Amino acid sequence: MSLAARTFEEGGIPTVIMGSARDIVEECGVPRFLFTDFPLGNPCGKPRDLLMQSQLLDMALELFESASLPRTTVQTPFNWDTNEWRENYMAVREGDLEALALAGEGADYVERSMSQVDDFNRELQEVLNEYCWGKIWSGKGLDRKQRSILNLGMLAALGRSHEFKLHFRGALNNGVSVEELKDVLLQITGYCGFPAGVESFRLAKEVLNEQKDK
Q1: In this structure, are residues 187 and 165 in contact, taking their beta carbons and an 8 Å threshold?
Q2: DSSP 8-class letter at 135
Q3: Is the Cβ–Cβ distance between 125 and 119 less than 8 Å?
Q4: Please, are residues 60 and 38 in contact by the beta-carbon 8 Å criterion?
Q5: How does pLDDT run across 31-71, given as a tens digit for each residue?
Q6: In the chain, what are the domains?
Q7: Residue-wise burial string across 10-43, b where 16 or more C-beta atoms lie within 10 A, e elsewhere
Q8: In the β-sheet with 72-75, what is the strand arrangement from edge to edge?
């Protein structure tokens, strides 16, 4: 969304972003940003709180009209009732570990990630726990097999070799057969280009060889 806003601005279309991930949005350099310190997914106010949602919308429109400097951030006065949501999203439970293992991110991966959390990267870890490991992978619209296939295509297009291997392993765990994965890689080759396809097959082969050696 932040990068889309920048693209619109370059085309002469003014924008204002309403969000809850301040560090990430500001890093993208959006022109106008209304920040509310809420759990991700709630930048427009608490669910079913129509008064708060209306007030936040009014604040966003006011910022849209009045911001005179580039990269202007305004923090709203609203607070979530408690900070328990932060602790809850930072906690990786047994059920989470099982879900992450299915996605190719086993307990050892999670433990390493959590052990490296400090004041510098804590907010990033909160985003990962809440949005990526939480909301996205627990969604009901797609099953894990479909999500794995989607991830492989996107990671191949982005050239993220480490994450591609991680999610190729996860795809096998999620029930994507080797034959299906071969077709996925051919699809990647056709739409992402031959270099991406060659690299994807190479990385996949490494994972399959590792599986044979176990």
Answers
A1: no
A2: I
A3: no
A4: no
A5: 888 988 887 667 888 877 889 999 999 999 999 998 877 78
A6: 2-75 (no CATH), 84-136 (no CATH), 144-213 (1.20.1290.10)
A7: eeeeebbbbbbbeeebbeeebbbbbbbebbbebb
A8: 17-19, 32-35, 72-75
